[in-house]
Amino acid sequence: MENVKTIIAWAKSNQHHLLSASFFVGFVIDNLTLSRVDSQIDNIILATYMMLMMTSTLVLYAALATKLPERIVPFCRDYMPYMMQFAFGGVLSGMLIFYSRSGSWESSWPFLAIIVGVIAGNELLSRRAERLVFNLSVLFVALFSYTALIIPVLIGRMGEVVFVISSIVALGIFVVFVQALIAIVPNFIRLHIRNIVFAIGGIFFTMQFLYFANLIPPIPLSLKDVGIYHKVERMKDGKYLLTYERQPWWQFWNRQKNTFTPIEGEFPYCYSSVFAPTKLSTAIVHEWQKYNEVAKEWQSQSEVSFSIAGGRAEGYRGYSYKKTYESGKWRCVVRTERGQTIGYASFIIYETALVPLDLETIIK
Length: 364
What we know:
This protein has helices at about 1-15, 15-35, 40-65, 75-100, 105-125, 130-155, 160-185, 185-190, 195-210; strands spanning about 220-230, 230-235, 240-245, 260, 270-275, 280-290, 295-310, 315-320, 330-335, 340-350, 360-364. The chain is α+β, with helices and mostly antiparallel strands.
């Protein structure tokens, strides 16, 4: 019995750290379970996290206001925060997994920064009023990210209009949730309603800015493969025969796809495979860019657009090629028509080969 009291006392004195630990447990579980954005199981898991997040928040404040049966108030007051943090960690890690798959880290960093901010907030905030605004902000970020993910999957479309609709849906659900909180703790919520409105409004308009500035990945698309090849041939069975330039034996981390040494009559091919949910059809762009050493920037050389259809687990395959080129640093950027980067392949074009190249073929 004495040991149990010691453990409880230790847990109360280290509550912030345990809240973060609960948050990370959600991260770990998501990394072990989530696979596809259009998977029914994955969406049941994420929806369950959302329900746990909102339910545990309502139960916690109902316990703090002693509006629950007296015998369960201490339990709910002590343990609902851990349930909240577990649900927060589950939802946000799920969003981080899918959003990071949907674009390069250059385009995913704003969401990653939000995650880091949430973890820091768990450690630093202690006052009840601060945690109220913080918890509601985290809930809205999770809700906003989830609706922006799931609505394109459900309706099979993506773009500006769909994103704005998703934003309004998230805001509507959040307003209903806050109304439920007001019914439980009216004076406490109204006392801090200005801070809540300011925080949620700031998040809402920040997300709009990030999206229209192309700083949010093109969810629910994700890049499965991209590379540069000497030749791409579509076979009768629908698979692709790819010829690439092998790298030195010591470059074990990447034996292909990052150099192109011209052979007379050949030109570089960019092959990509982009995953889209089953119902979704859209267009993607291969943008060929060359690095200008004088201006110190990437400059667009040409673009090729083609349609993709969703459903294939390994992604919809397509390719483009560049007939006119010169030596230097290049990259093939795979993006949406409105400019959101899904991913890219960087490579170097050398001068014409003087000796036979070590070429190899693979089938995908």
